Amino acid sequence: MHENVRTKLAYSERDFPQSAAHAPPHTSRNVLYPPILLKTLRWPVRRVPWLGCGLLLLLVGCSDGEQQVDAYPRRPIKLIVPFAAGGGSDTFGRVIQNAIETHRLLPERLVIINVPGAGGTIGSRRVKHARPDGYTLLLLHEGMLTARHSGSASYSAEAFVPIAGTGNATQVVAVRDDSPYSDLRSLMREAALNPDSIVFSANIGAPSHFAGLMLQSKIPGSSFRYTQTGGGAKRFAALQGGHADVSSFSIAEYVQFKPSGIRALALLGTERHPDLPDLATATEQGFSVESQNMQFWWAPLGTPPDRVETIADALAAAMQTDEVRETLAEMKITDTVLRGAALEAELQRRERRIAEVAPSAAVELPDFARIALGCLTLTAVAALIRAARRRRSGVFGTAADRTERESSAHTGQLASIGFLTIGYVITLQFQLVRFVPVTAVYALLVGGILVWPLIQSRRLNAAKATIALLIVSVLMSVVMHHLFTEVLVVDLP
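The chain above was modelled as a monomer; its predicted structure follows.
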């Protein structure tokens, strides 16, 4: 009997060296970690070998899949449209999407994801940093070329692989019905005599803005006063409400808005449009200006050429279908398709034309995302240095300090996790690091904060707990990424 008691006592002391009898005053770890949490934390420690095998199999499966199967695509392709749903770019993308699905031009779906904001820059930046595997594409018109010249982006077409150029929507310069300007000559004469007196409604940095810049560049001293309003519907509202004097629209937008009280002064194309035969071009009125907005398809830099060709083939085939041609005719968009050398030449031509009238270079703002992360890092380092100094000074270990630490244990944990969460969100928001590694590191650090008191009190083995946290963190990040991107088809950095 005494032997059994001695055995039980030895077992308990081996597993829990800091029992209630040996614990320092005011120390109650079970208050912070109830028995059910202790069991939960010990579960992965006891199953480290099994978790390791599962992680190895998962990683092998993820890495070998691309190499064993050459067929592309094998899963849905995400098409980022950097504007709100219902706009011109979104409508155009869905017309092509429907044709591809109806005629099975690709073996997998083309899923449109709207990422509006900053004139298309937020969406384009997401694709720029996406994995170059052909599963994340971008649909962005001439705004890709104008963004850098307007200062809204630090990159342009050179940061992507151009796939194809589809459609061509000619711009129209229009005013209200009661405007004193009868044609483009009278408008530009006033812009030269009284610079900045005519308000031009535009989406700053977009083709509508550069249409005005191209016009004023033809007469020295002429200048419009630009007001940021946004898309075609908002520009029309500004014009109709008297907040602007002139703006530019696509032919489809102009035909839609014309009955509500606007009229066109000029067509910014190379020739007259069959739907507007009485509308003279700007060139006919003495101003050699051309503004035709084409929808360009882009892939991240480094995307395999064969996958680029696969998408280009599907787009070319979609543009030749009867339903696409009929829909584009209703939208007053030509069924043009450019790819290869012809596409490269067209992009260079448009780039030169835009660069000639680009406004002064914008002042680059600091990288606030990295500044915020740097501040968080400095704060964490300062806290560690302060704790180390207190330990060396002998403050740690006293009864008063133990009481203070016990009362502030939860607060310290919450503060640390809060700092980590802020850094994690900022990192994902600005796509500084990919989702899987940053999520794994975040989960590992949060888990470490939670189990550190248990490791200190020797209730968990430090080495086994670290291995378990590493395995669980990586597994969780990989599984979450697969769930969101493959099952729910949600775009992640």
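Confidence is low (pLDDT under 50) at residues 1-34, 59-69.
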